[in-house]
């Protein structure tokens, strides 16, 4: 089939969105390819379509477990064979999945980056017929990016197992520096292709409000703008508080964060997607992979860490092309808190080493042991045991993760899974010899297609009702079947996971950590925080232009509908000529204060325009008079 025929058969679309078709063509030519497609640009189709057209299995590297699970579920619903391997799975389950990729007809295998370096994965990789390496969230490979993850550096190494297989790198937000770094770190071959869709979202009005009453402003927006929305907040506690505030005002709202159990998360997500809930209040755990086109507003209460993460989250608004709004509500405390959070993210190295040693002691790991081990992890209990402060500890764990010593995942919600591991003849004999267990295996085979080939997710409540048992009785029967080696049974799991990537290190060194690289990442994080602060404090330049220029994209005109453009329109200051006047006034006053009379002589513009610009900048609080009655730049 052609690419278009595959798209039509499995997804029901008659055409690709630009530049999906060009990206797919480059991949089919065997070219290494970089695809920079903003949020909602349809990145997954760019590797899923070629995967179905080529012989073999497409290996998709992704850091997001929830997204991997969703993708596999959706692909299987379309009758596409897909599997995923990530932390929290048993070795036996991983073993079967990798065998299916070699001997079965699995078309897409999703793997978390930390799995790439395991001996089990690399051994099986050599035997696989790999059609394509797809690297999702590719910005994670760059220290210049906003979400650097060292396990991504392993990807270039696994290319040596299949040197002729192309790599497709995908990301929604990357500057030119990050894009170049992605191509370099993934060892792209000469003649590689690069596709970049414009970051411009002309239907989104970008707004920023420095407001002491953030909650009052939120209510005004929710009441003024109809349709569904997302409200992002900084912590889990705040999600519930804001949702309850909206509910009291008659707005159908609910909250969402990674600490909720899977059933609640799924139920609330579905209720919002289907319009039963109008507003979902969430941490940044919400939104990845959710394709809801009619989101009319995305509001951030407080400041995101970077313009990259903000643009990705704000871009969930208005995917249907209709007018939508992306607003940030903040105050001075939020600005100082952002700088403080960057400081806190990089605790002293001695504290990081202490947390690592405590962690190894917590799981009784001997020196030189533990590589590849995965454990349930409760940070509250861990901190209580060693009398550690939770926030500082969490940040130390993230440093250890970034240095490739461990992997820390939020709660891994894994549904109960079963796989039939015996021959069909054994099942037949069971039906004759054991009338208590036979109905369970029969119900599994009737209800869950593919149970002979891979682990299938089961609904224990439904299955129990089918065979006339309580859930507890069913679980005991499943355990019996496992002991008899009829099935392999993986019960429900809902604990955060920690995985040791390396054997326990000696505390006499810096644990192999690159201290100078940590200092560099701290500097990059601070620069990104400053970029975020410039964006929200800016009152002169079109907000969309600020975003586009941050991503190295030149814009020749203002958007006309952000809060800055609307304010300027009221003062008849719309033209690009005024942008140049503003910039000149800023450059002059940053050097030294000047009187109002001096400015027109220093600025290449008419007196009236300069006076109008000075009045505007004064009203916005960007310039002020000092004690000598001279104008100075106030920022």
Question: Overview of this structure, please?
Answer:
- The model has no long low-confidence stretch (mean pLDDT 88).
- The chain has 635 residues and is an alpha/beta fold.
- The protein is globular, with a radius of gyration of 27 Å.
- The longest helix is centred in the C-terminal third of the chain and has 23 residues, at 515-537.
- Helix 2 runs parallel beside helix 3 (45-53) and helix 24 packs across helix 26 (607-619).
- It has five domains: 3-196, Rossmann fold (3-Layer(aba) Sandwich), CATH 3.40.50.300; 204-330, Rossmann fold, CATH 3.40.50.300; 340-413 and 495-521, Arc Repressor Mutant, subunit A, CATH 1.10.10; 417-490; 553-633, Winged helix-like DNA-binding domain superfamily/Winged helix DNA-binding domain (Arc Repressor Mutant, subunit A, Orthogonal Bundle), CATH 1.10.10.10.
Portion of residues within helices: 40-55%
Task: Name the poorly predicted regions.
Answer: none
In angstroms, what separates the terminal alpha carbons? 60 Å
Structure class = alpha/beta
What is the level-2 CATH architecture name of the largest domain? 3-Layer(aba) Sandwich
| Cross-sheet strand order for the largest sheet | 3-4-2-5-6-1-7
Give the beta-strand count.
Answer: 21
How much is the average pLDDT? 88
- Classified in CATH, the superfamily of the largest domain is P-loop containing nucleotide triphosphate hydrolases
Number of domain modules = 5
The biggest beta sheet is recorded as: 7 strands, parallel
What name is given to the CATH topology of the largest domain?
Answer: Rossmann fold
**Proportion of residues in extended strands:** 15-25%
Q: Can you tell me the CATH class of the largest domain?
A: Alpha Beta
Q: What is the molecular shape?
A: globular
Task: Report the total helices.
Answer: 26
Gyration radius, in Å:
27 Å
């Amino acid at each position: 089939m052609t690419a278009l025929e595959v798209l039509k058969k499995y997804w029901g679309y008659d055409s690709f969105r630009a530049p999906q078709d060009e990206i797919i063509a480059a991949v089919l030519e065997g070219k290494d390819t970089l695809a920079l497609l903003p949020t909602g640009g349809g990145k997954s189709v760019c590797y899923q379509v070629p995967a179905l057209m080529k012989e073999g299995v497409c290996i998709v590297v992704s850091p997001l477990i929830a997204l991997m699970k969703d993708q596999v579920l959706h692909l299987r619903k379309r009758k596409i064979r897909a599997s995923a391997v990530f932390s929290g799975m048993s070795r036996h389950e991983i073993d079967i999945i990798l065998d299916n990729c070699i001997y079965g007809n699995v078309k897409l295998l999703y793997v978390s980056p930390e799995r790439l370096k395991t001996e089990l994965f690399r051994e099986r990789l050599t035997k696989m017929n790999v059609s394509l390496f797809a690297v999702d969230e590719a910005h994670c490979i760059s220290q210049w990016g906003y979400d650097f993850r060292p396990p991504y550096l392993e990807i270039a190494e696994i290319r040596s197992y299949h040197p002729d297989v192309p790599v497709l790198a995908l990301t929604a937000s990357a500057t030119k520096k990050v894009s170049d770094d992605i191509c370099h770190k993934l060892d792209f071959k000469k003649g590689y292709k690069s596709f970049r869709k414009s970051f411009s979202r002309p239907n989104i009005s970008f707004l920023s409000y420095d407001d002491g009453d953030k909650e009052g402003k939120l209510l005004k927006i929710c009441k003024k703008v109809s349709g569904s929305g997302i409200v992002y907040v900084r912590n889990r506690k705040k999600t519930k508080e804001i949702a309850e505030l909206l509910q009291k005002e008659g707005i159908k709202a609910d909250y969402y964060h990674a600490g909720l159990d899977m059933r609640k998360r799924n139920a609330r997500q579905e209720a919002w997607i289907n319009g039963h809930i109008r507003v979902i209040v969430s941490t940044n755990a919400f939104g990845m992979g959710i394709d809801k086109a009619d989101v009319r507003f995305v509001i951030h209460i407080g400041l995101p860490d970077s313009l990259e993460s903000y643009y990705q989250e704000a871009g969930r608004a208005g995917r249907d092309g209709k007018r939508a709004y992306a607003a940030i509500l903040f105050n001075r405390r939020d600005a100082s808190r952002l700088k403080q959070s960057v400081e806190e993210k990089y605790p002293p190295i001695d504290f990081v080493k202490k947390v690592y040693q405590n962690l190894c002691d917590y799981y009784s790991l001997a020196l030189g042991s533990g590589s590849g081990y995965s454990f349930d992890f409760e940070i509250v209990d861990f901190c209580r045991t060693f009398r550690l402060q939770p926030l500082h500890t969490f940040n130390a764990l993230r440093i250890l993760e970034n240095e490739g010593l461990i992997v820390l995942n939020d709660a891994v919600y894994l549904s109960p899974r079963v796989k039939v591991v015996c021959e069909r003849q054994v099942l037949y004999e069971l039906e004759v010899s054991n009338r208590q267990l036979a109905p369970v295996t029969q119900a599994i085979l009737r209800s869950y297609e593919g149970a002979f080939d891979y682990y299938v997710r089961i609904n224990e409540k439904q299955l129990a009702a089918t065979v006339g048992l309580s859930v507890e009785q069913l679980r005991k029967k499943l355990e019996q079947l496992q002991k008899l080696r009829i099935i392999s049974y993986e019960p429900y799991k809902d604990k955060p996971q920690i995985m040791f990537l390396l054997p326990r290190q000696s505390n006499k060194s810096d644990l192999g950590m690159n201290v100078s690289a940590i200092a560099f990442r701290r500097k990059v994080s601070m620069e990104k925080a400053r970029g975020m602060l410039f964006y929200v404090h800016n009152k002169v330049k079109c907000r969309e232009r600020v975003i586009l220029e941050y991503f190295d994209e030149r814009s020749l005109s203002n958007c006309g509908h952000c809060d800055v453009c609307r304010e300027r329109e009221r003062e008849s200051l719309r033209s690009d000529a005024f942008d140049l006047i503003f910039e000149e006034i800023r450059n002059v006053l940053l050097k030294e204060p000047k009187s109002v009379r001096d400015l027109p002589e220093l600025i290449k513009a008419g007196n009236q325009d300069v006076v109008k610009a000075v009045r505007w900048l004064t009203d916005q609080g960007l310039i002020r008079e000092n004690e000598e009655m001279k104008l100075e730049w106030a920022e």
